[in-house]
Amino acid sequence: MKINELQLSQVNNQIERLIAADNFYGKKLKEAGITGVKTVEEFEALPFSEKQDLRDAYPLGLMAVPEEEVVRIHSSSGTTGTPVIIPYTAKDVDDWGEMFKRCYEFAGITNKDRIHITPGYGLWTAGIGFQNGAEKLGAMVIPMGPGNTNKQLQMMMDMGSTVLCATSSYALLLAEEIEKRGIKDQIHLKKGVIGSERWGEKMRKRISTELGIELYDIYGLTEIYGPGIGINCKYDTGMHIWDDYIYLEIIDPITGKNVPDGEFGEIVITTLVKEGAPLIRYRTHDISRIIPGECPCGSKYPRIDVIQGRSDDMMKIKGVNVFPKQIEEILASFPELSSEYQIRISHLDGRDTMRIYVETNGHVDFLEIAGRIAETVKSKIGFTPLVKVVELGVLPRSEKKSKRVIDERYE
Ligand code: ZN
Question: Could you tell me if 270 and 247 are in contact, meaning their C-beta atoms sit under 8 angstroms apart?
């Protein structure tokens, strides 16, 4: 997949606009001697932008239009350091709503649906993004926000919610509560739109089976509008990406070069029509790949695979590079285990060690299964972890992004 003529001219417009605005990013382009972009080669030679650049522009250095055109800001939920502020014009808000509406449509959701929104409202882009798209679609929005599981379930029953929007860990928590309370026959959910988190096939199956719903993965990040820049269709062969609004590349995170379609690498995104804060070749650090070929649904929108993790999640244990996803896949091959797990990395006596906590029920020999998991990790990845087996329900469930990997070396 290469950038096409129309997209190139759109990027060229974005560059010209940034330089004219003389904002933080426009200055950087000028310093690099860039005035525009005409060819694929020129595009692929443009410098990347990084989250740190966006932080350096705090608070409003990214603003690329006169202030009277800005109608809203959002901020990324930076857990450490300076947050990132993204200004939006009315058109940006509208474009984002159109993209999100398209996501719902690809999931077969209509204006007859009742959309139950549990992601948070506020500075970040989650709740309000789901809401804008749903209102554009003409569906009935139930804007719950996170937390208060009792009230969530009561409203879900009383309002007859048909679509659940949630993080995967909160969807799982709700599924388990519904099961525990024996109220499944009073729940009318048909579909789940699940965002903002990397999740395994096993967890997905569990949510889908326990709630009896079809699941759709939504992609997006605050720096680039928010959630809603792509979603899988009913054929579930990857997430379609709206390439009339954004251009997406996959690069080798080390060399910075584009990788061939089908190969995994880091997602890099360029906005094509954004006004408030255009970004050129923004490194997301999310790992995925372009899925080659055409989707059975016939849509021409390109597809990317499920997010495999973060390029900075890569761990080095006893000299071996490991992605949490690799451990997750091994755990998923043990039917005795639940979908919950926790990975802890620590530095003891001059060596890095990995401890893996998994859950199972009391009918399994804990020591025996721990031994088999350790052996499998050794044979498939190349080092031996410490495996600790606990009773079902012991590992923490969270309403926010699950913290499954805890690196104690830097705490
Ligand atoms: Zn499709």
Answer: yes
Residues in CB range of 100: below 8 A, 6 or more apart: 129, 130, 132, 133, 134, 136, 227, 228
Q: Give me ligand 1 centre to Cα 290, in Å.
A: 13
Q: Could you tell me the mean pLDDT of each successive run of 10 residues in the chain, 411 residues long?
A: 96 97 94 96 95 92 97 81 93 98 98 97 93 98 96 98 94 94 97 79 86 95 96 95 98 88 92 98 93 96 89 73 80 90 82 89 90 94 92 78 70 49
The pTM assigned to this predicted structure is: 0.82
| Residues comprising the chain, all counted | 411
CA of 298 relative to ligand 1 center, distance in Å: 6
Question: If you measure from the C-alpha of residue 299 to the centroid of ligand 1, how many angstroms do you get, rounded to a whole number?
Answer: 6
How far is the centre of ligand 1, averaged over its atoms, from the C-alpha of 240 (Å)? 7
> Residue 304 is encoded by which pair of tokens?
């990317």
Integer Cα distance of 1 and 347 in angstroms: 42
DSSP E strand stretches across 95-195: 114-117, 140-143, 163-166, 191-195
Q: How far is the CA of 300 from the centre of ligand 1 (A)?
A: 8
What's the CA-to-centroid distance between 294 and ligand 1, angstroms? Answer: 8
